[in-house]
Amino acid sequence: MSEITTDVVSHLANLSRIALTPEEIETLSGELGAILDNVAKVSEVATPDVPMTSHPIPLVNVFRPDVAGETLTAAQALAGAPEHDGARFKVSAILGEEQ
Predict the structure, then answer these.
(1) Domains of the chain
(2) How confident is the model at residue 93, as a pLDDT?
(3) Do residues 28 and 60 lie in contact, with contact meaning Cβ atoms separated by under 8 Å?
(4) Cα–Cα dist 51/53, whole Å
(5) In whole angstroms, how far apart are CA 84 and each of 77, 78, 81, 88, 99?
(6) What is the pTM of this model?
(7) CA 62 to CA 73: how far, in whole Å?
(8) What is the signed CA dihedral for 69, 74, 79, 81, rounded to 10 degrees?
(9) pLDDT digits (tens, 9 = 90+) for 41-78
């Protein structure tokens, strides 16, 4: 069993600003100890001839390439606007700004 004591968990919770009950501290000390034990077992089995992997299956981008295409002209973009000044959309002032 790893050296994850209730004192260590309590200290980590204090550093993380997490309020834990004594029961939660007791539970977490056992769970964190088990996690560290499992990591240690995996480290024992890891050999230099086995390549590291970040994902068990190859990842492929399923999106099409980002290619610039035709865009709207300013007049086309402003055609459906409730208000505009010919070059920009007009919107109401916000956050107490004066018009």
Answers:
(1) 6-45 (1.10.20.60)
(2) 79
(3) no
(4) 6
(5) 10, 7, 7, 6, 15
(6) 0.46
(7) 30
(8) 110
(9) 888 877 778 777 777 888 888 898 889 999 998 889 99
